[in-house]
Every structure is written in C-alpha cells, then in structure tokens.
C-alpha cells in the first residue's frame, strides 16, 4: 500500500473517530450535570456564608459579650480628667475605640467607628454626647445608643475595669440595634 493511501485511510479514520466521540456525548446530560454542579456549589456557598454570620447576629440579638479578649491597658486615670477622652484600639489594632471620662465622672468606652459609615466618633463634652461629624450622627454617651442623625445601631461597648488607677479593656459587647 502506498504512503498516499495510508495517509488517506488514517485521515478518514480520525474523522470518523471524532464524529463517534461527539455523538457519544449526550448534551442534555452534560447540561443537567453542569446545572446540578452549579446548584450544589451555590447552595454550599450560601450555607457557609449564612453559618459564618450566625454567631455574630446571635450575639448581637442577645447582647452577649464576645468570647474572651485580652486584658489591655488603656490609660492611667490620673491622665484622664473629667470631660476628656482617649483613643485606643480594641480588641485588635483595626478596631478604634474611645475611652471617655464624662463630665459627670463616669468612665465608658466604645468602639469609635460610627455605625453609619465608619467615620470616627468624638466626645463633645459641652453637650455630653458622642458626635460623628461626617453626617451629624449623635450617640448617647451613657450607653452608645444612636439618638440623632443617620446611625441606627449602637456603638459596640468595651467592657472596662479600673485597677490601681489604671483603666483596662477586658471585653466587648455587641448590642441589638
Ligand atoms: S458616618 Fe457617622 S453619621 Fe454617617
């Protein structure tokens, strides 16, 4: 058999193999399996996302403390006269917070990222209130609840302890808005 004939036969066989292969693939099944795989992935992803947010929402609804955080020194009481506040970070360096010695002599602390759009909140001692200057959001300094402007949720409360004239952060609470 000549080389030309061999080449021609080989080309014909390759072509018919290809046709057989394509015919063997049932396109309906293929679509069905792809759809099934996509749905499985989508359901799995949304369940994982839902489960990851449950602990936070449950804690927020029940007003519970977060699991243990480190005890962190914030300031010496002697350095914080009434009407003053000091910024610190708690529980991580990405969580700005404010310790306030109110004009009434109380010590309170909150995470200071506004619950509207995260601008920093400041203590206005003249009005004894927490103010977010971005959109004039106001929070009650005694409990961190929003009292005016766009914010709808409380500021997370930082639990504090005073020992030997030093103020420590010891925990954090999310309250239900
Ligand atoms: S970011 Fe605080 S009021 Fe808008």
Automatic annotation (TrEMBL):
A Pfam family hit: Rieske
Keyword terms, alphabetized: 2Fe-2S, Disulfide bond, Iron, Iron-sulfur, Metal-binding
Ranges where the Rieske domain occurs: 72-169
Family annotation (InterPro entries): Rieske_2Fe-2S (IPR017941), Rieske_2Fe-2S_sf (IPR036922), Rieske_Fe-S_prot (IPR014349), TAT_signal (IPR006311)
Name of the protein: Rieske Fe-S protein
